Amino acid sequence: MRIHAIELHRIGMPLVRPFETSFGVQTSREVLLVHVRTDVGDGWGECVAGVDPFYSSEYVSAVEDVIRSYLAPALLAGPIGGAAAVAPLLRFVVGHRMAKAALEAAILDAQLRADGVSFGSHFGATRDRVDCGVSVGISPNISTLLDEVQTYVDQGYKRIKLKIKPGWDLEPVAAVRDLLGAGGLLQVDANTAYTLDDVAHLRELDAFHLLLIEQPFVEEDIGAHAVLARAIETPVCLDESIVSTSVAVDAIEQGATSIVNIKAGRVGGYLEAVRMHGACLTRGIPVWCGGMLETGIGRAANVALAALPGFTLPGDTSASDRYFAEDVTEPFLLDEGTLPVPTGPGTGVTVRTGLVRDWALREPLVLSAG
Ligand code: OSB
Ligand code: MG
After folding, report:
1. 138 lines ligand 1 (CB under 6 A)
2. Proximal ligand: closest to the CA of 55
3. pLDDT band for position 369 (50/70/90)?
4. Using a 6 Å cutoff on CB, does residue 293 contact ligand 1?
5. Whole-model pTM?
6. Which domains, ranges and CATH numbers included, belong to the chain?
7. For residue 370, is pLDDT > 80?
8. Which of 79, 194, 314, 341 makes an SS bond possible with 159, Cβ 3.0 to 4.6 Å?
């Protein structure tokens, strides 16, 4: 396969409501879309990096720079052996997994469209729809939080995830547990906001029978998560820490994570995400599909990934209208708490290129061979 050009589109999309986590508030999604033109056809990928380096060290401007300076030249230099060859070719650059993942996704989309194969069948999906949860940001107060959660319950979401931080944890969790009742699926995500000094406090969450607590401590502190996991009953699930299959296996063997959040961007691509799923399945570790406020492009690929057999917990694969009034593809619509796995070739969704143009924050960056 030959890549003729890589176009980077930086677009801004307002969120339907602000999204607050322990690392800040977001009111819009500034996102980088990758459009590749190849000898077998075109493909689109989405980069999950945020506009600021708060969730991870990657951020949109850095992604643009590393693609322009290093990654695109490597892919444009000569023919490549398809999407499977992308990660090995880009290994000379340390890290920058979200940038690499977006390129691989765009190339995989082009390749599978040419072959008439969907992302789901290429990954080994065993379901035609996936169970959906919703990630609920930190609210100004409990009553606003309960209104938001009630809306999602009414829409049919099968699981609620609450963002927590010191000062916003036991009280909101108690209130939402009360709203959902004992049988409602509830989990929390701390996005690294706690330390080992908080173990006794976090143990109080055990009373609410959560599915899991996601990433309480900083990403490098895998050993600290193992200590916490031994001290509390709530299962510990890592997100930020798990940057590759080998890190996942190490964390599982250390007892630091008994459930894994899989995000293709964080691990360097969908193909690595599929390998991580396999490693977890072999070890009897349940996984679920994380989200990064994706547009329909990334969402289509996430839903395909979440259809693999080891994804036994509902994912952060919410419908388009949970994020955006209008999506850059046809919208994903919730149906009895599930989203359908696209069946068309590649991602199976169509990019509305007029909207990509309308929402552009600057001229697209066009990188080509020679
Ligand atoms: O930690 O899962 C996270 C969004 C941005 C950055 C990090 C996270 C999230 C979410 C959103 O929780 C999940 C979604 O896309 O619905
Ligand atoms: Mg998380």
Report:
1. no
2. 1
3. confident
4. yes
5. 0.98
6. 3-116+352-368 (3.30.390.10), 120-340 (3.20.20.120)
7. no
8. 314
